[in-house]
Write a structure and sequence with these properties.
heterodimer; A: alpha+beta; Yope Regulator, Chain: A; six-stranded antiparallel sheet; 3 helices; elongated; disordered N terminus; B: mainly alpha; Helix Hairpins; 2 domains
């Protein structure tokens, strides 16, 4: 019953990547896509000129998940940590299609789609997520430590 | 414990240890174990539902049979009364009473089975919902783990160093700079193109003799003289 790592999901992801590779974002920006791990369970998508914030994509029967890592705990100004978390929570609703979250000690932004989404919808998601990530880092930069 | 609470335990487990796997594999193992147990329990519930239903069908038949027999013998008793055979009627009535007694017992058993079937079905539906939810949560936790692993791989691959140490604001600055550079390049390219087009036009005008190639004092004087002659 478990679908993660199951071959069905992998086939789905591989098919998705093939379709994605044949497309560009609405402004003609190209995507570089590669499988990430040996199990072919995670794909890494890099938007041209924004390679610093790659998008990781996984597919299972429940959802297509797109995740981008923003920054680690170590980059957060520890005195402003709680305030930042609150700001992120409050911003969540207004951010189109993406949301903040945290995996381990990494702050992330993610979007989830139905597994039956069209390639156009997925491209739209990638484009929005990529834009949102830049806006989000910009927006919360005041809570981050000065660059070392 | 609710599944969400278990999930919190699972993702929290490794979070305190920087650089460690973020998903508490122990918590996943526990979740998976519970999932397996739930599935076994579900199978057992289904098996016993089948058994109970089979037994219920048997009792059902008995009840129907007894009902028919009661009706049938009631008919006989009436016929005996009609014939004035009081003692036969009493014997038949005794038989009916026996049947009714047995019917009561069987009906009680049937009712018991019915409520057991209902509760088993409810339990099965609940287990199925739980299993689905657990499946989903485990898959989310595992996806998270995969992504975390992938990200570690990525930071190792990307620019050869640990990119997670690079600050997000630095990255953003770099992206902005690159964007600006691109825009500048595009603007420059456009200006250059315009200029080139302008030069091109000048060339063609000169070749066509519409624009003078080199206008000197002498040539101007010559032109003015010609104009005067023609006028």
């Amino acid at each position: 019953m478990l679908s993660i790592g199951g071959s069905m999901s992998n086939e789905k992801l591989e098919k998705l990547l093939k379709d994605l590779a044949e497309n560009q974002l609405s402004d003609g920006t190209s995507l570089s896509i590669e499988m990430f791990d040996g199990d072919n369970a995670v794909a890494c998508i890099k938007v041209e000129d924004r390679e610093e914030f790659p998008i990781y994509m996984t597919v299972d029967e429940g959802q297509i998940l797109c995740i981008t890592y923003l920054f680690g705990d170590n980059q957060v100004d520890q005195n402003k940590r709680a305030e930042m978390a609150e700001v992120m929570l409050m911003m969540n609703v207004s951010i189109p299609l993406s949301a903040f979250s945290k995996i381990g000690n990494q702050y992330i932004m993610f979007g989830a789609l139905s597994p039956s989404s069209s390639i156009g919808e997925i491209l739209h998601e990638i484009e929005l997520l990529s834009d949102n990530v830049l806006d989000a880092v910009d927006a919360v930069s005041e809570y981050l430590q000065e660059a070392a | 414990m609710s599944i969400f609470k278990k999930l919190i335990t699972a993702v929290r487990g490794g979070a305190s240890e920087v650089g460690e796997a973020i998903v508490d594999t122990q918590a996943i193992r526990i979740l998976e174990q519970e999932l397996r147990e739930s599935k076994i329990a579900l199978d057992e519930a289904k098996t016993s539902l089948t058994a109970v239903m089979a037994e219920k069908m048997g009792v059902d038949r008995k009840v129907k049979n007894l009902n028919e027999k009661v009706k049938e013998h009631e008919g006989y008793a009436i016929q005996a009364i009609d014939k004035g055979d009081e003692s036969l009627a009493l014997d038949v009535a005794n038989k009916v009473a026996d049947f009714e007694h047995e019917l009561n017992i069987q009906q009680g058993i049937l009712d018991g089975y019915e409520s057991k079937v209902t509760s088993l079905k409810k339990m099965i539906r609940q287990s199925e919902r739980n299993i689905k939810a657990m499946d989903r949560e485990i898959s989310v936790v595992k996806t998270t783990e995969k992504v975390q692993q992938a990200s570690e791989l990525a930071s190792a691959k990307y620019s050869g160093s640990n990119s997670s140490l690079k600050s997000a604001t630095d990255s953003l600055e770099r992206i902005k700079e690159r964007q600006q550079k691109r825009e500048d390049q595009a603007t420059a390219a456009m200006e250059l193109e315009t200029e080139e087009k302008g030069e091109d036009l000048q060339d063609r005008l000169e070749k066509a003799g519409i624009v003078d190639t080199e206008s000197t004092g002498a040539s101007v004087l010559e032109r003015l003289k010609k104009q005067k002659e023609n006028s």
